[in-house]
């Protein structure tokens, strides 16, 4: 199947492919369509009292504060192992907790998402890991 993309869609895909943030593959069943794949690693860190570590927002110069409650997460690069992505997440976002985290379980989920900005659908692979603070 021939893929028709606008210049903006092509530039966006090219940028993500060049920075190893996604892959493109052919979904053999049932349609032989090209699919963009991404992978995210999320950590659910909790203490023994039921509290969960979350990020409640971000701040950027010029745009100010943006509220969004989310778990610590990071995009896994194409060439990166899940373990390396977790290490990068801990080093960049959770460095003070590095020696206190005890990983207990994990699960992987897959979701097909319509992503018109890219001109192709996206398969999001999300790995969720659970850790306690020891």
Outline the structure in words.
The model has no long low-confidence stretch (mean pLDDT 91). A hairpin with a 5-residue loop joins β1 (23-27) and β2. With 134 residues, the chain is an alpha+beta fold. Strands 1, 2, 5, 6 and 7 form a 5-stranded mixed β-sheet that branches. Strands 3-4 form a two-stranded antiparallel sheet. It has helices spanning 7-18, 82-93, and strands at 23-27, 33-46, 55-60, 64-70, 73-75, 101-113, 121-133. The protein is built from 2 helices and 7 strands, in the order αβββββαββ.
Radius of gyration: 18 Å
The total of beta strands comes to 7
Spatial separation of the terminal alpha carbons: 53 Å
**Into which percentage range does the β-strand content fall?**
over 45%
Shape: globular
- Quote the average pLDDT: 91
Helix and strand string, N-terminal first?
HEEEEEHEE
Residues in helices, as a percent range: 10-25%
Provide the fold topology:
Elements: H1 7-18, E1 23-27, E2 33-46, E3 55-60, E4 64-70, E5 73-75, H2 82-93, E6 101-113, E7 121-133
Parallel strand pairs: 2-7
Antiparallel strand pairs: 1-2, 2-5, 3-4, 6-7
